[in-house]
Structure formats: structure tokens, C-alpha cells
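Figure S4 source data
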Amino acid sequence: MVVSLVISALVIGSVYGLIALGYSLIYSASGLMTFTQGELLMLGAYLGLTFYKFMGLPFVVALILTLLIMFAFGS
């Protein structure tokens, strides 16, 4: 159980670190603080959940579809 908790904490900490790096990059490039990154992250999470859980697609297929759609949405 301790190993599982440590791995979960590392994963969550890594996600928080990536989000913080994104905010820092956006702020240093534009000088403005914008919170749209969190909304895009949530949209991607809901898309992945929809493809995997509700549509019943395999995980790899749901992941690839989510990445493609979010790439197109972000461009």
C-alpha cells in the first residue's frame, strides 16, 4: 500500500509540476496571466473519460483520439 501511495503522489506531483511549468511559460512569453490552460486540461480529461468509459474504446485508442483532438483544438 505504501508503494502505491508513493507512486500516486509522484504522478500527481508530476502533473502539478507540468501545469506550473505551463503557467510559467505562458506568463514569461506574454506577460499576462491566463487560466485557459486548466480549462484545456479539464477538456482533455473529460474527452479521455468519454472515449474510454462511456464509449467503451480500448485505452490506447482513447488516448490517441484524445491527443489528436486536443492537438487540433490547441492549434
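Figure S5 source data
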Amino acid sequence: MKSSQLKFRLILMLVLQFGAWGAYLTSLGRYLGNAGLGPQIKWFFAMQGIVSIFMPTLMGIVADRFIQAQKTLSLCHGLAGLAMIGAGLYCMGAGDNVQFGPLFVLYSVSVAFYMPTIAISNSVAYSAMGKNGMDPVKEFPPIRVFGTIGFIISMLATNFIKIGGVAMQDSYTQLFSSGALSLVLAAYALTMPACDTNRGESQSLAEAFGLKAFSLFKDSQFAVFFIFSMLLGAALQITNGYANTFLGSFAENPALADTFAVKNSNALIAISQASETLCILLIPICMKKLGIKKVMLMAMFAWVFRFGLFGAGNPAWPGVLLFVLSCIVYGVAFDFFNISGSLYVNENASPDIRSSAQGVFMLMTNGLGATIGTLAAGKVVEACDVFNTPANWSTAWYIFAAYSLVVGVLFAILFKDPQKAK
């Protein structure tokens, strides 16, 4: 296959992959608040972390050992899409009486099968590029940019499209959009280049189930890398869960209710993803010139500014500029951590455990880290009583910024770049 053709096919895969996520990730909290489920927001976003504790590793094992990665990707998206559409159907039928239990169950099934696809889609791309003689570290980031573009397109569609006079960001219709995109990718994934499985004739029990990837923890510096990935992963879902709800809270102030940041909060937050598209292109240069430690440190301190600027800003001019700056630094905070970390794991894990190792990275970041971080953030939000006293949002954001600062300082002291695995 020609390189140009392969790049196009990978681009389309990633547009669908992240478009399905972007359709609801930053706007779900706003809909839940409208439906009277504001106090339960933390559980919806924590569930993404809970399932990431085991599902990416489990499905990575399946992709490594039993079912080719592109077929595993298809299976996961098919189940995720059906469950998300089921969640939308429930909300449509429930009307103004949406209950936490049924919606949460359907949503949980969907994210349980969606979250592994983030790592598996990376494995599909890395495999196809490797077989085509391409260098993933150099050539994957520009392709990955289009995944973020897909995310942005979905976010903007959710912000501006109205169905029945109601914007999708305020409605359950965002769930239908996400589910439909997952089903399209489920079909498309079956057409992707075949990935190898590793079924050795003589394997230990740990090797047969892909648990060999956990041997990476024996390397002290790799263990430190994973532990701090977990600690930084605690920050990943905080703004996804609460930024849109936070911006919407300004609507209670008549002087701010009609500002762009309040009425089009999802579009404002989309600046974050636009920043990602630029920062992704910087990753090959930064990884080569600076190394993983400095790149990760840049991400950690970017999270400090991400949260701190939210705390200091407001929707009126010129305070809204602080929100814009927060969205701009998000590109560094997210990409320099997630994508650089994924590339680092791919380079340092042996070929027979790369999908499993990607699953372990997901477990530590979007699993343990995101679960602990989201639930802790929920406690902070509740302690600040933001739903009754919106002015207290600033205190919550400053607490999150202080946490990121402490993590960054400790990482600078404790982590050294491990040698690349041979």
C-alpha cells in the first residue's frame, strides 16, 4: 500500500475514533446538570476511569494474543455504539424524568468498550505504519492531528446544531451522535490492514494472557514513569467533567448570561482541541530535542496554568481572555502527556507486548489516575458547594492547580529517562 493511501486511511480512522468521543465528552456534564443530575456528574466521568483500570489491558491482551487488533477495534466500537444509542433512547423516552440508574448503566457499558479503543487504534496505526516502512515517532503525530480535528468537528456540531429548537450540548441527542460514529468505525475498522497476533508455541501463563507487560514495573525508572502517569492522569477528566458546567453557571448572572462563553461554552472549549492540533506537530521535535522527561514536565506545568486560568477568568471582557489562554495551554497539557507517553511506551516495550503495554499505560492514566482524580475532584467541588454558590468555582480550580504543581515538582526530582529497550 502506498504511504499516502495508508495515511489517508489512518486519518479517517482517527477522525471517527475521536469524533465519537468529542460528540459528548465536554458537553455531557451540561446535559446532566440540566437533567437534575449535577451531583452525579463525577460518577459518569469516574466510570471512564474505572473501566480503564481493566478494559484497555484486557482488550490489549485480546489484540496481542487472540484476535487481530483491527477486528478487536471493530468489536469494541460496535458494542460501544449500540450501548450509547441505547442510552439516548432511554433519555428520549424518559423526557424530564431521567433517572440516574438506567442512564448510568447504559453509559457505563458504552464507555467500557470505548476506552480500550484509544490504545487499540494506536496499535493498529503503529502496526500498519511499521509494515509499510514508516517511522511512527516521526510520522504518526501529523496523522494523529486529524483525530483531534474529528473531536473538534463533533464538539462544534454539538454546540451549534439544534434539534427541536434545543442545542445538542443541552440535550440527549449528543448520545445518538456518538453512538452512530462508533458504529461507522466498527464497520470501517474491518477494512484496515491486518495486525499480527503473537501466539507463541511455548508460553508461560503470564505470557499467554499478556501479563508480561507488567514486568515493565521491574525497571525502577519505568515504574516511576507509570506512577507519575497515574498522578497526572488524575487531572485528565476534571475539565471535561466540569468546565462546561462551570461556564454555564455564569448564566445565573443576568449581566453575563448572554456572553459568548456562556451561550457557546462547547465552542469556547473547542479552542483546547484546536491547540492540540498545533501541539501534536511539535511532539516529534520536542521528543527528539528534549526527551520524555522535559516533555512530561511541560505537560505537568501546563496543567497548573490550565486550572489556574479557569479560576482567574470570567466570561466578560477582558476576563474571557484568561479562559482562552487556559484552552490554549491545554494542547501542551494533554498532548505532551498522552501522545508522547504512548509513543514512549511503544519505543520502550518489546514488540510482543506493545498492545498490552499500551493497555497498562491506559490503566495508569485513564484508569486509576482518572478514577481517583475525578472522584477527588467531585469531593472538592462538593466541599466548595459550587452548585449553590457558583462564586466558589475559583477556589476549586486553584486547588486543582496546586495539585498539578506538586506532581510536577516531584516528577522533576524523581524521574530519569530510562534507556530505550533493545
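DSSP finds 16 helices and two strands in the chain. The two ends are 28 Å apart (CA to CA).
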